[in-house]
Amino acid sequence: MKKHQVTIIDIARALNLSKSTVSRVLTGHANVSLKTREAVLELAKKLDYQKNMLAISLISKKTNTIGIIVPEFSSSYFPQVIIAAQEVATQAGYNTVVSQSNETYETEVANTKVMLANQVDGIIVSITRETKNYDHLKIFERKGIPIVFFNRVCDEMKVPKVIVDDFEGAYNAVDYLIKNGRKRIAHLAGPVSLRISERRLDGYKSALKKNNIEIDEELIISYDLGLSKVKIYVNHLLNLENPPDAIFAVNDPTAIEAIQVIKKRGLKIPEDIAIIGFSNDYASALMAPSLTTVAQPIAEIGMTAAQLLIDQINRDVSDWKAVTKVLKTELIIREST
Amino acid sequence: MKKHQVTIIDIARALNLSKSTVSRVLTGHANVSLKTREAVLELAKKLDYQKNMLAISLISKKTNTIGIIVPEFSSSYFPQVIIAAQEVATQAGYNTVVSQSNETYETEVANTKVMLANQVDGIIVSITRETKNYDHLKIFERKGIPIVFFNRVCDEMKVPKVIVDDFEGAYNAVDYLIKNGRKRIAHLAGPVSLRISERRLDGYKSALKKNNIEIDEELIISYDLGLSKVKIYVNHLLNLENPPDAIFAVNDPTAIEAIQVIKKRGLKIPEDIAIIGFSNDYASALMAPSLTTVAQPIAEIGMTAAQLLIDQINRDVSDWKAVTKVLKTELIIREST
DNA sequence: CCAAATATTGGGACCGTTCCCAAAATAATA
DNA sequence: TATTATTTTGGGAACGGTCCCAATATTTGG
């Protein structure tokens, strides 16, 4: 089926040498006479010799590969984090294997199995909105393979994590809305299973309380982040006898979707209703009205996660550290408020 | 450094069996007594046994992994193609390794080496805007590892390719502009090194000719797709004594950037100047004005590329096929025209 | 109850490297 | 020149599986 791949044995045979000698030349290791060195190098080049990392990794028990598992790929958030993480990883000599769990628990489990089977040296994970059982991730800990969470983390596990101050970000966003005269602020929240939803909800509530605005549970809608449902929720909010004059959305895609719905109803943004998103996705600056949003330091998140993982990989299991880096958000004010 | 990973030998020793027997159970292969089968399965589960694909791949000379190399990750085009390709690959039992070449030739070469070293079963590639030498890709052919191009292809190589009818897409876009009364249509073109730039340029020129509009080279600007330069070019065009009344951009990011510049100058879109992009990126529907664009069947491109690759992998080198699939584009008319 | 048939298990080669240790070749020294 | 020191090379184990073939254990049938 496949052509024969060139191995050091082929080179050794052709030059009447032992594979040990060829190996030595190719790894630039010990003393080899100039003559044989040159001969080996020349033939290797001529034959397009490429070392087989499978064999090397099998022996060294190290693949120099890190896995990244993210829930999705369609908003700009995760791709950007991945770009940043890859940069750090590449710099440190690591390859990356990326897979998306598609927001489903089963796929996430399957992906972790694949990563394990392929002997990654560590993984960076942001869990799905469904993930409640963490056994598939705890296996990594047990096997001594470092794991780092970002964004959507697993509280049960004592491992490095990179998050942003969701509470503060949400608080600032809602506080800003109130300072601008908004009285009835709705919150399109994420699923309760995710800590980030919870923290953003807390920030929202806290800002209301500080400003002596009563929390109206009617204005808080938690949903599973399936964008198609946003339309229903927004329409529901707008049809209330006492509709909101602002919406704080748990993320940008939700906010963007909400804006489409509101525009279609002929309401004016921000005059009739203001909108704030979370994360500063690529599209949020371009759309009309451009979206006010709580920006995350996306590149920093990716780079920090990768760095933490690599640090962990280079440490002995016995001195694993479990730092949690909390990065700052920044409210970016645009036309939607 | 790392903990000992559980192997079939550990299981064999613990149960006083040979590794052959354990292997048989774990692969579900031949006849094994129910008693031993259950004992092995139970212990394997208890110890979190995970087979080491490195060892298996080394012997079978197959990793069930395909590589995908794309120039960038920041527009929505490539991520979407990748999602679609991954779907087909996963379905067929293949893992995917994705890497971005960052639009630089050196990185592309480095990435191909990594893929080779890791013994991928095949690769899907869209080359950088810089790539003029294809030796690093031809190695795959020589080694009998299938390669499939999409979007930005290498003409020199007789391998499967997936492209869209760029000529027709461009032709239709420009023809539409003319039918709507535009007389001076500028073209922000891509680098001449890429065939897609060339074909889109040809379509642009052909539409002008068909409609008896003289081609004004002053209105054609080829650039390297570095978005920061768009501002300079657009301003240059608008400052001409006889400025264009429409711009056909080689891709959506370029068009989106152009729109920002034009809006900043206080011109009205589409009244003063119309804009058309190419690819129907995620943001193009959301922005204001929403962008008229030549849509590519992105998911189909990814799926087709993956399917062609897998077909090729399953064929003997001697009957490799080199089909070129040309998919249709569709002009999506929005507010910018 | 014993031979033959069948079910179950074990042994060992193999994949492509690296690395340690010993062997051979060469150079240095007395 | 013989002997030792130093280069240079070769041999073989190891990594963790799969798979073929032989060996053993268990059934089965006459």
UniProtKB/TrEMBL annotation, chains A, B:
Indicate the segments forming the HTH cro/C1-type domain, all copies: 2-54
Name the domain of life this protein comes from: Bacteria
Q: Name one GO molecular function term.
A: transcription cis-regulatory region binding
Occurrences of domain HTH lacI-type (ranges): 6-60
Q: Which UniProt keywords apply?
A: DNA-binding, Transcription, Transcription regulation
Alphabetized InterPro entries for the sequence: Cro/C1-type_HTH, HTH_LacI, Lambda_DNA-bd_dom_sf, Peripla_BP/Lac1_sug-bd_dom, Peripla_BP_I
This chain belongs to the protein called: LacI family transcriptional regulator
Naturally occurring in which organism (per UniProt): Pedobacter kyonggii
